[in-house]
DNA sequence: GTATGACCAGAAATGCATTTTGGGTCATGT
DNA sequence: ACATGACCCAAAATGCATTTCTGGTCATAC
């Protein structure tokens, strides 16, 4: 799916499966040891392939890592879409925020990306904050708030960009505060998520409740747009080392 | 005021003033260079006194720093009390939150303390997260939320400890997100503060608005309690090196 | 055509001798 | 008394030679 550099035909299933296995291995290792401490040889060994095989799939360690990040982003986005479609409150900020955060908490790599965790991201983060995965997210969210305000799923009496910023700040605080809060006083995570969602609903939802269906559609569309954006960006540089 | 180890009489004005000047110098230096990079000699030079003089006031560099932190905390608390007394919305979470955050944003040292900024706090933070200034704050806030709920300035339909945690998380996110948010998209600070306060009001204030006067009184009392707590704790270990 | 792993070179880590730094003290001066 | 700054010494920083590591390549094997 996400790895399509195989010329003009359909993705080679064998190759694609192996690429996936390699990314699985990389994910396991990097989540635990961080980008710096996991070597390409480690990944190869963990995946049960040779080091050379890895360079048959990606030009460099960096590109492997970015492919991994892309895959995980795709997963999260996909899951988000499914959740929104399946769940009745999918179109409300209530459901949206709660699910958006949970999916990040459950995905160590996305968690690290969202918090710029230097321990996990290591040199990659230090070198280049250039990946669109690092920055375009806020654009996407800005647009989402704007459109959600247009269909009155979010109240329009406050500036959309400020709302976006505040939402980001809450998300960031949610993901990072454990570093400074007395550990024995942290309430259960799901209680926090649920309460936070309720507060957000009160603060941002209009009286009537707005057009949920429209909200749902907007978020799905935007998520899809984000996916093609990421995919396209990746496609332009995730070329194979050989056979152009 | 805060430095009262001078035996039984009133604080020695000359000595106390000089201590203040030294702390001023220390603040200036540490805000800029961080705890590790500012030496005791630097502080002495900046304050225009000899190194030995500093050890006439405090037993160690650590204690000087903690005295500084205490002084700044006292200032902030004092200002908070004054603001609450002077301002009509002093007793509401609206005003409370807004002012509480502004006072931290305006005080580099308190900002560093609230965010555990290793660049500023340096070795002191690394060695001991033992100072009550580091931990007791959350206790204080927990109690505040509890009492505010009791007089219905904060709605009682959600768990107080979770609310406290969420408030802390928002504050922390507010103070730290700039590290990961695209710099050119950060809205003006006061717009964010104001909007955030409005959202909080909507999310946490009851229909009627609750008893503002009672809210005001509670916060003032608690702030005062916090002050004597800090003062007392400091008093038991901020003894002079000689003349006990 | 595809996979492998020994191999390469630059970068990073290690070990160690040497120098500098910086809390903290105290003999001396006022 | 009180203030000073030269002085002390452990700890940290520096410089440097040597070793290890590791991203990336490619001759060889299948």
Written overview of the protein:
The structure is a homodimer of 244-residue chains. With 244 residues, chain A is mostly helical. The first copy, chain A, has a domain at 72-235: Tetracycline Repressor, domain 2 (Orthogonal Bundle), CATH 1.10.357. Helix content of chain A is 69%, strand content 0%. The longest helix of chain A is centred in the N-terminal third of the chain and has 26 residues, at 61-86. Chain A is globular, with a radius of gyration of 20 Å. Chain A binds chain B through residues 114-116, 135, 138, 142, 158-159, 161-163, 165-166, 168-174, 176-177, 179-182, 185-187, 191-192, 195-196, 198-200, 202-204, and chain B through 114-116, 135, 138, 142, 158-159, 161-163, 165-166, 168-174, 176-177, 179-182, 185-187, 191-192, 195-196, 198-200, 202-204. Chain A binds a DNA duplex (30 and 30 nucleotides) through residues 39-41, 49-53, 55-56, 59-61.
List keywords for this structure.
homodimer, 244 residues, mainly alpha, Tetracycline Repressor, domain 2, 69% helix, disordered N terminus, disordered C terminus, DNA-binding
């Amino acid at each position: 799916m996400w790895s399509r550099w195989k010329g003009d035909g359909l993705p080679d299933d064998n190759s694609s499966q192996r690429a996936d296995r390699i990314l699985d291995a990389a994910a396991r290792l990097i989540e635990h040891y961080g980008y710096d401490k996991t070597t390409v040889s480690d990944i190869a060994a963990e995946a049960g392939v040779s080091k050379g095989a890895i360079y048959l799939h990606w030009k460099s360690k960096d590109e492997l890592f970015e492919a991994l990040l892309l895959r995980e982003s795709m997963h999260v986005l996909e899951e988000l879409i499914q959740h929104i479609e399946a769940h009745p409150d999918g179109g409300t900020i209530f459901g949206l925020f709660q699910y958006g955060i949970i999916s990040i908490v459950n995905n160590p790599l996305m968690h690290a990306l969202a918090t710029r965790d230097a321990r996990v991201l290591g040199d990659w983060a230090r070198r280049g904050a250039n990946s669109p995965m690092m920055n375009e997210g806020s654009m996407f969210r800005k647009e989402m708030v704007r459109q959600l305000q247009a269909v009155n799923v979010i109240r329009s009496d406050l500036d959309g960009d400020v709302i976006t910023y505040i939402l980001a700040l809450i998300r960031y605080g949610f993901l990072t505060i454990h570093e400074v809060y007395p550990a024995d006083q942290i309430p259960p995570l799901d209680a926090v998520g649920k309460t936070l969602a309720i507060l957000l609903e009160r603060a941002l939802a209009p009286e009537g409740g707005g057009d949920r269906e429209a909200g749902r559609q907007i978020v799905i569309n935007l998520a899809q747009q984000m996916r093609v954006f990421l995919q396209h960006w990746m496609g332009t540089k995730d070329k194979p080392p050989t056979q152009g």
